[in-house]
């Protein structure tokens, strides 16, 4: 039967066996290898939970909240997508069950269904199909790669898989399915087992969906014998089963995929002409740095860490870690990152003095009171001992507070987030944000997304960016209080970045002749750092840290 042709090709990535095996990185890598063939690609993340966006979720449990230019608060996978593709993604590239249901329910309340009984199938499923098509149309890309969160067989992602099936019905040649599965090697047996993946494919088949490609994640490479067994059991051609063993660096994954000619397989199956041979020379050069940087630069990240293993921790600060890596790699060194618990520095001066061992200190974004005085003590130490310091969002606000208290003689200066009755509210909430908080309207209640910022001549920020106007992403409620700007500037703090109307302080820094790099940004520069274009402020911070080391 001849089917309609879509204007775009779709690749759906679904997970088999279990979660947490790198489906996001596999999706980002598929995007990367197709983009390296000269095609335009957008990546879409489906999160099956009922939260309308990721903004209300705890990062220590769920990983970082990644903010797009539009201000949408999304899952950390969107950060990986943007970094691998080196492309900004739009709000239509992210969807949750909550978001889809909300729009369907709103439409129902507005009599948008003409008196019909509104049901998950066909209405919610139909809304999902529309979203898939809209994401492809708005991005105007040749290929839209959609990662469906969760694992096949889950209750909560079933409608999304069914919507993908419907799209396949509509445009059969233009839709392809990849299953990222896991092949365990139980230590008691010492042999890789294919059976769980066979079951996962059977579960996908029960939705009426057959995978075209299987990405076989495991601790070990997949051998020919098991590849053939999977091929026959799962009805997938052996060359379409890609071996994906564990790697030290996620940036090697696209290179490994191409070793198995995955872009050729995808393009052939979709009947799509590439613009050229695979060009990943820049990426290959970048990825090699992860293995052979010369020397190290020691960065201490002072944050509030509790009850978390390293794994979860690094997920909560994923973009910060990656941003540090990119700038360190570009400078030819490897970063050695230490997690420093801010609480340690609250009352123990000896612990604070140990910060002298670091080449650079960073205080990332955060909320609330835990460890706050410890962070302020660490910032003071960095300022007084001329250790390069980089403050991100909360780290900028706390740097301003430290300066107000200890240099500008504003005793007791604080943020009203912690002390609403402070004698000197140098950081305060802007009136419209205060209104939302009073209403307990927390979802999307912050200053979110990209805002322009004008840089002052002759400052560290201006020379780092090499531009007068920049745009950066925000996620915060509090701001530097305009009433204190003059006093802080008189005391020597430079507000080197401001909103174009001059009312919002975006970057604070100390003069370069006083301190090689003492700078805080009200925004989150880490959200804009990319492997092939490291962030200018991280570059400047790492350069100062390397300088200090020598
Ligand atoms: N808690 C601060 C605020 O809301 C900083 C937020 C952040 O670091 N992202 O303004």
What's the topology here?
Elements: E1 9-15, H1 23-35, E2 41-47, H2 59-62, E3 66-67, E4 73-74, H3 76-85, E5 94-96, H4 97-109, H5 120-139, E6 143-148, H6 158-170, E7 175-182, H7 195-205, E8 213-218, H8 224-234, E9 241-245, H9 253-259, H10 262-270, H11 281-292, E10 296-303, H12 310-316, H13 318-330, E11 334-341, H14 349-353, E12 360-363, H15 372-384, E13 389-392, H16 394-406, E14 413-415, E15 424-429, H17 431-438, E16 447-455, H18 460-465, E17 469-476, E18 478-480, H19 485-490, E19 494-498, E20 505-509, E21 518-521, H20 536-549
Parallel strand pairs: 1-6, 1-7, 2-5, 2-6, 7-8, 8-9, 10-11, 10-12, 12-13, 13-21, 14-15
Antiparallel strand pairs: 3-4, 15-18, 16-17, 16-19, 19-20, 20-21
Helix pairs in contact: 1-3, 1-9, 4-5, 5-6, 13-20, 15-16
This protein binds glutamine.
Residues 365-367, 393-394, 397, 417, 475-478 line the site of glutamine.
Structure description:
- By secondary structure, the protein is α/β, with parallel strands linked by helices.
- It folds into two domains: about 10-285, Rossmann fold (3-Layer(aba) Sandwich); about 295-550, Class I glutamine amidotransferase (GATase) domain (Rossmann fold, 3-Layer(aba) Sandwich), CATH 3.40.50.880.
- Helices cover about 40% and strands about 20% of the residues.
- Helix 4 crosses helix 5.
- The protein is globular.
What key attributes describe this structure?
550 residues, Rossmann fold, 2 domains, nine-stranded mixed beta sheet, seven-stranded parallel beta sheet, 20 helices, 21% strand
